[in-house]
Amino acid sequence: LHSSKSESDDRADRHTWSWRRAFCGGYEAADAAFLAEADRRNWDDGSTACACLLSVDDEAGSRKLVVANAGDSRCVLARGRHAFRASTDHKPDAPAEKRRIEKVGGYVVELNGVARATSPAGVGFGIDRTKKSLYLSVARAIGDRQLKSPTPVLTPTPDVRVLNLQDDDLFVVLVCDGVTDVLSDQQIVDVAAKHYGDPAEAAKKIVKEAFAKQAADNITALVLEFPWVDAAKVGRVWAESEKQLKVALQEKKDDEPFDMFA
């Protein structure tokens, strides 16, 4: 058999495999270490985790964004004027997550209109009926020992995506679910773009905007600006987008049929 893959393709595949192995191993090690400490201190806490790695090879002309996510924190990429979701929210009622949870003996229940993962104890089927259970609106997380043992309802293993960055990719925003509960991906990108050049200020503005909209959960934001993109380029992209929007609105208005009885 003859392969059409080039040597550079093989190298890229090896890098992708290495990144996935590294992120998955790191998340699983962090989970094990946290659970050991949680057992010693009797903690029932846990956390979602979203991380990204920027890989740049100028000689090969390669720029990649590696995104690892476990839970419902989110990575949003500004692709030109538009928001591009670079991670997947791990909700218990997502088909793949629900199948995995039920396969290991866990349950997905609905409480107040929200799908939540729980253990057999959470639905009254545990051997020890007095043992309490968590009801979490995520399917993956670090910690949360009640949903790790004896029934591994949650998994710490992240989804890992490797994205080839394009010329119009401008920056990345990492946020937790308190932000995404009240702000759309596009609103997050719009707020960050207004403060391009000062990522710390951009992150603060996102948090303040979510707080102003009465976010009821944790509110955290981090903005990563690509070093090869300057504020002038972001300004040009936004100005061109506004211009195109105005033209589109005018064309739509011009296309409206004339109503002689109006």
Could you name the key traits of this structure?
single chain, about 260 residues, alpha+beta, 4-stranded antiparallel sheet, globular
Question: In summary, what is this structure?
Answer:
The protein is an alpha+beta fold and 262 residues long.
Give the strand tally.
11
Strand order of the largest sheet: 5-4-10-11
Distance between the termini: 72 Å
Going by helix content, strand content and strand pairing, the class is alpha+beta
What does it look like?
The structure is a single chain. It is built from 6 helices and 11 strands. The chain has 262 residues and is α+β, with helices and mostly antiparallel strands. The chain has helices at 7-41, 95-103, 177-180, 185-193, 199-212, 231-255; strands spanning 46-47, 49-57, 62-70, 74-79, 82-85, 107-111, 114-118, 142-143, 159-164, 169-175, 221-225. Helix 4 (185-193) crosses helix 5. The longest helix has 35 residues, at 7-41. The strands form 4 sheets. It has a 4-stranded antiparallel β-sheet. Strands 2-3-9 form a 3-stranded antiparallel β-sheet, with helices on one face. A two-stranded antiparallel sheet has the order 1-8. The mean pLDDT is 88.
